[in-house]
Amino acid sequence: MLRLSKLTDYAVVVMARLARDGALPHGQVQTAPGLALATGIAEPTVAKVLKILGQAGLVEGLRGARGGYRLTRPLAAVPLSEVIVAIDGPIALTACVDGGQGQCEAQGICAVRGRWDPVNDAIRRALSDITLADLAGPTRCAPATHFAQLVAE
Amino acid sequence: MLRLSKLTDYAVVVMARLARDGALPHGQVQTAPGLALATGIAEPTVAKVLKILGQAGLVEGLRGARGGYRLTRPLAAVPLSEVIVAIDGPIALTACVDGGQGQCEAQGICAVRGRWDPVNDAIRRALSDITLADLAGPTRCAPATHFAQLVAE
DNA sequence: TTCAAAGAGGACCCATACGGTCCTATTTAG
DNA sequence: CTAAATAGGACCGTATGGGTCCTCTTTGAA
């Protein structure tokens, strides 16, 4: 089954939740424990995902008390491919295209050598054309600057 | 790293080799040991791949002495997606789209529920538009009905 | 008629990768 | 000064899949 890792799935859910709760660029922040509660994902896992997303620059972490995370870009500006690369690493369907380092032992007789590139490009293109906004759908709630929105959870 | 299984990679190589050596529909057959030698892939692994491809109807196995395998369709009529499905199973990037059976524990609060379908469709479309002929490249040798072609290997 | 060569169909083992957890250090608001 | 939160690791158990092997069936040829 060609599938992406669970962590990537979690990352999409978490980022969608950040947007929904108003943790937009230069907005308020959302804590990892809070996101865990809101998404139903275990808290250490949420923390791990957010740390990785932070290293990739997709979210911004504010340390200290009253710290938390917020997006660095609106969801519509984040292609899905970028999240996958951040969590899973480069998108390359076969090992033999990862640069010249891992020399394939059968390269002398391999009939398809170098021909996977169009396939990888097609996949990357498909995943780049979809943004997290497409996955998250319309934000049902206005940015939760209203207290009523918060307690309604 | 979003990648397909090694077995799928092997399958493409083996099928490309079948075509190259003239094991076309209604043509001569090619044995698993012979293909292993020709491709550099271990013989039990080649046999395993061919058995799976046979179940999927992508190759035809002829039993008995002088038996072997041949393609059931020319490479240009085999989309890459079909090989991936045969070896890896259905193409679905996340678990939550595999029908209703594996109910996601967070389905009540999941913000992206049901929105992965366009992503999966895009991937499937990209992989369906590429045929094995694209991956194998031009067949350098004419179908090996000439004995000279065979011994030249 | 017998034998050898080849596919069909499983069962099985093991290494790797990944999910998941936890620990410690650092930062910062109150 | 303390509590709350992120940052950055280390660590472990399990599940998946790659790879091998064994047995049975089929079939051409001696």
TrEMBL record, chains A, B:
Coiled coil residues, start to end: none
Q: Which Gene3D superfamilies match?
A: Winged helix-like DNA-binding domain superfamily/Winged helix DNA-binding domain
Superkingdom of the organism of origin: Bacteria
Q: Which GO terms describe its cellular component?
A: cytosol
Q: Which GO terms describe its molecular function?
A: DNA-binding transcription factor activity
PROSITE patterns, per the entry: HTH_RRF2_2
Q: What is this protein called?
A: Transcriptional regulator, BadM/Rrf2 family
List the taxonomic lineage.
Bacteria, Pseudomonadati, Pseudomonadota, Alphaproteobacteria, Acetobacterales
